[in-house]
């Protein structure tokens, strides 16, 4: 770029110096310009006047002919006799012209070519004639109107005379005044050269303050331009990056500094010194661990320009998010996603003759610790349990956390059933030992359910279900013990069937309610939305936790009917709110298997009259994992309706950056598990929240912090740039009739929140 700019400046300056060094050539050029100017000044306006007047006069003749023809037709129609044309035409002809009229003469000619009537005067100038056909009650003829061009000729002569004097004045100005300017041009040239030099200095300054390293090479692979940042990135001096330095020398300097990528310096040299013939983008990891994004673009001269950007921090943030997608933030253990992957791998070895055991662990009395001693102690307890349980298994085994106080172990391989029982017994034993946490003595226990493969199945979901059944049996019999799966462990299945029957009738009997939890916009400090949450008031039992019936509803397909009812209720209720407040509705991954989902949303909007822009649909990553192509198509269809799409529980399940690339989400909701750890001194949680907010900001996606329960958590997420918050600090979910206070007051103070 700099080379091209310098060349253009040089070419302009050289041409100007050549012109000013030959005064005769300059004067000849000025003379030609003067002649051309007078010709244009004298001839162009009169010619334009003549053409415009000619066009106007022609149009006027046609207009008079048309008017006359129409009058004759109307009179003929009124009289009703085509033979009366001889009496009608003269009167109309005299009416359309006169001594002072535009039309000098007009006449009517019949179909046989004979003149029926004529009126007007003899023309002394060339004339313009307009014609129009006459067709009425059997008569056919032509009406002619003639206009004199005399006024045009006289007007053109007047204009020519007027502009002739003006042309001579212009000729004088363009002949004499430029000669004076010629005398001062040399002085101006020197001034321009000084200004150009000053611009070069400013350009160099801007180049050296770029955040990216930039280097331009010619066709011989020699440096034309290199900025300061490029030299700093590779530890090079100004002398080592001066113009004329070859690319091979630059690469040798880098290798000498130990900054190269690839297996060997020779491979790196060959790759970096290859000729650039096409645009390319690549990312290289240098030997010091840094990641550099390199863009190379060829130039027409045979050289190329390259930019180098250090993206180490960005890669680290991406790595944190990728780790977060497969690991639990509190314990660092594999999450449900990674556990399923490890289980599938272990089952493949089972098919080759190995055996494995799946252990499902659930902590006893953990909720009591959380309720009495607080979440900080509860989190410390989970971390301590993780350490003890990890000490009971081998490196080949996998320990993962699947929910709050539930863990899963994949023990693979095992030699016998007794080996699996010994691990389960050891886990129960070590967890029962007292924990000393933050000045508190904590006593808990654990129950373990064990399923064996291939004895109890060779399918991952079946093994997990059977291990869960065994865990349920262990809790029923006596907490703080373990049980192996037995085929008759189906008592809980009966209770699930009973729950399913009650769930099917609940919708018909009107037992469901929609509660609403507000979201606060941190920039405007006002409630911007309400999330619709379904609740089941089961007769004789009371409120049933969504965690107890939503999974069953998804498994049985009832979630489609329940989801449609919630959608309609939420849209209807939102119509009573102010226009600036949105409503957010959760969509299950099961609903995306229903091809009529988009039609259901359209129907709910139409029935309620709610504007699509006020509806936000929340989905989890599981929607995209199960059938990403179909889900993406449905999401795009929903987006076309005008509704917003939010990615819920980001980071707890199947989180992947690829989802953010495949669909432009409007919002990311950071899971409450990360927000909860912000005030417990967990640096990892803070780093993850910061990374997600920065990622959302860079992609233009809003971010919502879920589960904000304290003012400290509020201030942290606010300082990190989070867009919205949701949680008990603002309000617990409430029935529709209790949210009026949030709708009537737009602004909510942070203290009140």
Layout of helices and strands, plus pairs?
Elements: H1 2-20, H2 23-79, H3 85-95, E1 103-110, E2 115-120, E3 127-136, E4 139-148, H4 150-208, E5 213-217, E6 223-226, H5 228-233, H6 247-257, H7 265-272, E7 280-285, E8 291-298, E9 304-310, H8 312-326, H9 336-350, E10 356-364, H10 366-373, H11 375-390, E11 398-401, E12 406-411, H12 417-432, E13 435-437, E14 440-442, E15 445-453, H13 460-477, E16 482-484, H14 491-508, E17 512-521, E18 526-538, E19 542-544, H15 546-556, H16 559-574, E20 582-586, H17 597-608, E21 615-619, H18 621-626, H19 628-641, E22 644-650, H20 657-662, E23 667-670, H21 672-676, H22 683-698, E24 702-706, H23 711-719, E25 724-726, E26 734-735, H24 740-744
Parallel strand pairs: 15-16, 18-20, 20-21, 21-22, 22-23, 23-24, 24-25
Antiparallel strand pairs: 1-2, 1-4, 3-4, 5-6, 5-9, 7-8, 8-9, 10-12, 10-15, 11-12, 13-14, 17-18, 17-25, 17-26, 18-19
Helix pairs in contact: 1-4, 2-3, 2-4, 6-7, 8-22, 10-11, 14-15, 16-17, 17-19
Which ranges are low-confidence, i.e. pLDDT below 50, for 5 or more consecutive residues? 1-8, 10-14, 746-753
The CATH class assignment of the largest domain is Alpha Beta
**Strand order of the biggest β-sheet:** 17-18-20-21-22-23-24-25
Mean pLDDT: 83
What's the CATH H-level homologous superfamily of the largest domain? EAL domain
Number of domains: 4
> Which class of secondary structure composition applies to the elements?
alpha+beta
The number of strands is 26
Overall form: flat
CATH architecture of the largest domain: Alpha-Beta Barrel
């Amino acid at each position: 770029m700099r080379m091209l700019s310098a060349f253009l400046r040089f070419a302009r300056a050289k041409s100007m110096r050549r012109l000013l060094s030959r005064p005769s050539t300059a004067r000849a050029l000025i003379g030609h310009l003067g002649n051309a100017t007078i010709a244009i000044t004298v001839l162009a306006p009169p010619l334009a006047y003549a053409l415009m007047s000619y066009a106007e006069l022609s149009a006027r003749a046609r207009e008079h002919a048309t008017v006359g023809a129409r009058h004759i037709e109307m009179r003929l129609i009124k009289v009703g006799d085509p033979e009366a044309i001889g009496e009608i035409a003269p009167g109309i002809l005299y009416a359309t012209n006169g001594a002072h009229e535009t039309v000098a003469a007009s006449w009517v000619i019949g179909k046989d070519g004979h003149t029926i009537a004529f009126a007007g005067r003899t023309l002394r100038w060339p004339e313009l004639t307009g014609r129009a056909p006459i067709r009425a009650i059997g008569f056919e003829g032509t009406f002619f109107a003639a206009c004199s061009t005399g006024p045009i000729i006289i007007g053109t002569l007047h204009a020519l005379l007027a502009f002739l004097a003006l042309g001579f004045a212009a000729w004088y100005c363009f002949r004499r005044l430029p000669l004076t300017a010629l005398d001062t041009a040399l002085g101006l040239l020197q001034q321009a050269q000084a200004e150009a030099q000053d611009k070069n200095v400013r350009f160099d300054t801007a180049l050296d303050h770029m955040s990216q390293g930039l280097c331009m090479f010619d066709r011989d692979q020699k440096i034309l331009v290199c900025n300061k940042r490029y030299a700093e990135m590779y530890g090079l001096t100004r002398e080592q990056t001066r113009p004329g330095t070859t690319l091979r020398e630059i690469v040798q300097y880098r290798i000498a500094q130990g900054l190269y990528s690839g297996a060997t310096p020779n491979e790196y040299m060959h790759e970096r010194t290859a000729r650039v013939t096409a645009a390319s983008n690549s990312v290289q990891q240098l030997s010091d661990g840094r990641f550099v994004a390199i863009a190379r673009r060829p130039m027409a001269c045979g050289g190329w320009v390259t930019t180098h950007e250090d993206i180490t921090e960005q890669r680290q943030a991406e790595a944190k998010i990728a780790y977060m997608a497969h690991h639990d933030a509190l314990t660092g253990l594999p999450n449900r996603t990674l556990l399923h992957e490890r289980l599938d791998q272990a089952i493949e070895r089972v098919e080759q003759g190995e055996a494995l055991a799946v252990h499902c662990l659930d902590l006893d009395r953990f909720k009591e610790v959380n309720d009495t001693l607080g979440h900080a102690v509860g989190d410390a307890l989970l971390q301590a349990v993780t350490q003890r349980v990890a000490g009971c298994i081998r490196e080949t085994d996998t320990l993962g956390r699947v929910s709050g106080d539930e863990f899963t172990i994949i023990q693979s391989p095992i030699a016998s059933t007794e080996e699996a029982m010994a691990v389960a017994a050891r886990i129960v034993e070590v967890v029962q030992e007292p924990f000393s946490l933050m000045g508190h003595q904590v006593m808990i226990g654990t129950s373990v359910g064990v399923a064996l493969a291939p004895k109890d199945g060779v399918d991952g979901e079946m093994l997990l279900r059977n291990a869960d059944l065994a865990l349920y049996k262990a809790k029923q019999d006596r907490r703080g013990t373990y049980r192996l799966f037995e085929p008759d462990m189906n008592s809980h299945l009966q209770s699930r069937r009973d729950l399913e029957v009650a769930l099917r009738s609940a919708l018909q009997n009107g037992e469901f309610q929609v509660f609403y939890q507000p979201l606060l916009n941190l920039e405007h400090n006002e409630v911007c939305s309400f999330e619709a949450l379904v609740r089941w008031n089961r007769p004789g039992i009371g409120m049933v936790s969504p965690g107890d019936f939503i999974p069953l509803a998804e498994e049985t397909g009832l979630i489609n009917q329940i989801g449609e009812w919630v959608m309609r209720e939420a849209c209807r209720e939102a119509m009573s709110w102010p226009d600036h407040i949105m409503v957010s509705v959760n969509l299950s991954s099961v609903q995306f298997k229903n091809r009529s989902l988009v039609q259901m949303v359209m129907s709910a909007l139409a029935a309620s009259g709610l504007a699509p822009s006020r509806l936000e649909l929340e989905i989890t990553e599981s929607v995209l994992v199960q059938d990403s192509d179909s889900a993406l198509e449905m999401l795009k269809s929903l987006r076309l309706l005008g509704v917003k799409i939010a990615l819920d529980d980001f980071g707890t399940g199947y989180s992947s950056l690829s989802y953010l690339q495949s669909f432009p989400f409007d919002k990311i909701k950071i899971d409450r598990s990360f927000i909860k750890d912000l005030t417990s001194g967990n640096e990892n949680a803070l780093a993850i929240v910061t990374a997600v907010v920065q990622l959302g900001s860079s992609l233009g996606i809003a971010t919502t912090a879920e589960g904000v329960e304290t003012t400290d958590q509020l201030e942290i997420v606010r300082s990190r740039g989070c867009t919205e918050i949701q949680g008990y600090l603002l309000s617990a979910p409430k029935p529709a009739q209790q949210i009026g206070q949030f709708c009537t007051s737009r602004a909510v103070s942070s203290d009140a929140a």
